[in-house]
Structure to design on (325 residues):
């Protein structure tokens, strides 16, 4: 979430209006000598200085940097020096794009929408054709390699626990940097990192009963439906699961749309390596939105979910309530 200012009036009117208001405030707050004394600037000159300062401030505000995204060039560095450029972002989602990478970037992420006590999950998705740098997780001076240059999978999302740390992007030696651009989208969320971290270590492992019950309470979408078709995208290493949905329990973003034959339709994505195939019966599909796409989380068969929900309900262990019939 960025910090958006309300649109200002067009042209110089808004600037002169702000300048005039500031000049009036300055005239009230700054004591003026009744008569210009020796060495005192004439009143018109003093007001002109105030107006000029306000105008410069207004102009600077119009060109303030984006707190969510950063775009820069390594050509600003001297070729014989390995400089580290500091990048500060104060947002829950955005983009970093580094053209002609040389030296390194230290990306400092501090979202202003979450409590410091919350455990955050950071997900990054490399830009298409991103190359020219390694990406590390940086914490108290130690670096952990996250993405090696050349190993960026197209369209893949990488998630991990994030505890007040940053990213270190180091350019790799290149004979020609003229066609290199390193970049990624990022998202920070306060939801439990368990499902995302599981997706890194064992992306196709079935969820446990506890993970399913938690996913029902914390997912961006929870729906009941059947798989109509599955299409594969080898270049992106992803599969699209096309669903016919009979009931929507929750969807924070518009993922599923009314179908002509009744119910809803839509698709969600998962990794190609999971080998998802069309099958009979109904499932409970859960998942999260990542970079505008619906990503599959836990998806038990409906009868299995109803069984585990009733068992947990009898023991008073359900993290939230829902109508499972």
């Amino acid at each position: 979430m960025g910090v958006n200012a309300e649109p200002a009036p067009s042209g110089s009117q808004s600037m002169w209006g702000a300048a005039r208001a500031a000049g009036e405030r300055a005239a009230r707050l700054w004591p003026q000598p009744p008569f210009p004394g020796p060495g005192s600037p004439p009143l018109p000159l003093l007001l002109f200085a105030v107006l000029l300062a306000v105008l410069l401030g207004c102009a600077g505000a119009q060109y303030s940097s984006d707190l969510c995204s950063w775009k820069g060039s390594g050509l600003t560095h001297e070729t014989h020096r390995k400089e580290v450029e500091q990048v500060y972002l104060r947002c829950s989602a955005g983009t970093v794009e580094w053209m002609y990478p040389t030296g390194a970037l230290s990306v400092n992420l501090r979202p202003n929408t979450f409590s410091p006590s919350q455990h955050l999950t950071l997900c990054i998705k490399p830009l298409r054709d991103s190359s020219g740098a390694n990406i590390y997780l940086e914490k108290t001076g130690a670096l952990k390699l996250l993405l090696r240059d050349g190993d960026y999978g197209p369209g893949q999302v990488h998630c991990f626990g994030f505890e007040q740390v940053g990213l270190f992007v180091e350019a790799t030696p290149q004979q020609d940097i003229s066609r290199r651009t390193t970049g990624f989208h990022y998202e920070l969320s306060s939801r439990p990192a368990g499902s995302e971290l599981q997706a890194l270590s064992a992306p196709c492992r079935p969820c446990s009963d506890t993970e399913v019950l938690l996913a029902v309470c914390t997912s961006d979408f929870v729906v009941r439906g059947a798989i109509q078709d599955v299409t594969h995208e080898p270049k992106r290493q992803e599969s699209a699961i096309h669903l016919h949905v009979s009931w929507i329990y929750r969807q924070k973003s518009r993922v599923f749309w009314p179908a002509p034959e009744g119910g809803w339709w839509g698709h969600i994505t998962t990794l190609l390596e999971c080998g998802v195939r069309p099958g009979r019966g109904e499932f409970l599909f859960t998942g999260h939105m990542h970079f505008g796409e619906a990503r599959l989380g836990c998806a038990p068969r409906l009868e299995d979910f109803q069984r585990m929900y009733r068992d947990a309900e009898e023991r008073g262990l359900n993290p939230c309530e829902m109508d499972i019939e």
